[in-house]
Design goal:
The protein is mainly alpha-helical. Helix 16 packs across helix 18. The radius of gyration is 21 Å and the shape is globular. The protein is built from 18 helices and no strands. The relative contact order is 0.13.
Length: 425
């Protein structure tokens, strides 16, 4: 039988919805009181940080579903205490190295590239403005995955990107209230600091401090799963790049205003994606356990039920956006028609992604991360090339069209491969 979570799942759903509007709320606040140009700048910096964070965590968040969540015969907290300490050390080291490389590149590349001029003006001091946010946004999702795998899902949505956006928004609101002018990097730094402290408190309270023996066994645990971690790293980096690179691309081609328009459209589209995230975060460990028991037909039956539930929510949402999308973008301080078309394009692509169900989570949880990696790479390369070509010709709408291919395509391919490799019955 599928694993059932406790009544905390209702808290999980509520916080997931709240986190989904974190980036939207942040963009609304910045757009209303600082302008769409500032939205574009902050979104570009945050996008670069999130891409670096995906590389820094080395696939440890996705690996936790299988390494921790599939050990149904062990005490969950004990397995988590083995897994997390070494994960923190690995992510901390990789975050420091990646932030240093990025800072060096920004200094030697100079102006005229896709690197924001504000980062170049910081000099080598920009390293400290990047290292902490990269580490915070890299390690918090690892903690969230471990807590979900150990049957503590309630607070995990706040440990992901949407939750971090609320802390950045809190810093922005306080700076606006006291009349302080913060740069995009200062805003991100202080928000990430609060996010990191909050994440550490939540994880420690749930699983406790590890013993010396657990730390030693944790290092062996990571060594045994090193090859899987490397493959998952590739998947995570390509997925994160596919998700976040298009705002910097719009910044490069058409400036911060176009980047802000694409950021708002992307974030509003991702509010629909949160529905898939709710199901996927809960279904992943369930599919992994069912696959190991050989319940192949039952997996697909559960997935069909999931698709139906997702469709019942998605279709009305798409209709509402088509009817009232123009009013929605005006709420963010944007008057251009291009912002409305960007919203329609990206929201429709996310609708296809959501209706496609949780097949990507299924493939990863059942050990087919190589298939997910290949699918992701193919569609990312295609969408990036298409966005670069169309963006240079048609502006921000062209970038959105290219991005939509990378959003909807992998979901359709994941359905095909899940049916072929996982649901054999």
């Amino acid at each position: 039988m599928p694993v059932k979570f406790s009544a905390e799942k209702y808290v999980f759903v509520f916080l997931r919805l709240l986190a989904a509007f974190g980036l939207i709320g942040l963009n609304w606040l910045l757009g209303r009181y600082w302008g769409i140009d500032y939205v574009g700048l902050v979104s570009t910096v945050l996008s670069l940080v999130l891409i670096a964070a995906s590389l820094s965590r080395l696939g440890l968040d996705a690996l936790a579903i299988r390494v921790v969540g599939s050990k149904m015969d062990l005490t969950y907290s004990r397995q988590a205490r083995r897994y997390l300490p070494m994960s923190v050390a690995v992510v901390l080291t990789s975050s420091a190295i990646i932030a240093l490389c990025f800072s060096a590149f920004s200094q030697f590349s100079g102006a005229g590239t896709w690197i924001p001029r504000e980062l170049i003006s910081l000099g080598w001091g920009g390293y400290f403005s990047l290292a902490l946010p990269v580490f915070a946004f890299a390690i918090a999702p690892v903690g969230a995955s471990v807590l979900r795998a150990t049957k503590h899902p309630a607070l995990t949505p706040i440990l992901e990107v949407g939750g971090g956006a609320w802390f950045i928004g809190l810093v922005a609101f306080v700076s606006w209230a006291i009349g302080a002018a913060l740069s995009a990097f200062d805003l991100l730094f202080y928000g990430a600091l609060l996010f990191l402290i909050f994440s550490a408190v939540i994880v420690i309270r749930k699983i406790g401090f590890p013993s010396t023996t657990e730390i030693k066994r944790g290092s062996c645990l990571l060594v045994r799963n090193f090859s899987s971690a490397i493959r998952l790293t590739g998947v995570a980096v390509v997925q994160a790049t596919q998700l976040w690179i298009f705002v910097p691309m719009a910044m490069f081609f058409h400036g911060s205003e176009s980047a802000g328009e694409l950021a708002v459209g992307s974030r509003l589209g991702m509010s629909l994606f949160v529905i898939l995230g709710i199901y996927g975060g809960l279904r992943g460990p369930v599919y992994a356990a069912m696959f190991r028991r050989g319940e192949f037909s039952a997996i697909w039956a559960l997935e069909r039920q999931t698709k139906l539930a997702l469709s019942l929510v998605t279709v009305p949402s798409v209709v509402l956006v088509f009817l009232f999308g123009d009013y929605i973008v005006r709420a963010f301080g944007m008057e251009s028609r291009s912002a409305y078309f960007v919203l329609l394009i990206l929201f429709s692509a996310q609708a296809i992604n959501v209706v496609g169900g949780c097949c990507t989570h299924m493939l990863v949880g059942c050990g087919f991360e190589r298939v997910v990696f290949l699918v992701t790479v193919v569609f990312f390369a295609s969408s990036f090339a298409l966005a670069a070509i169309l963006g240079s010709i048609y502006g921000v709408e062209g970038v959105a069209l290219g991005q939509s291919l990378g959003v909807a395509g992998p979901a359709l391919a994941a359905n095909f491969f899940a049916r072929k490799f996982v649901c054999k019955g």
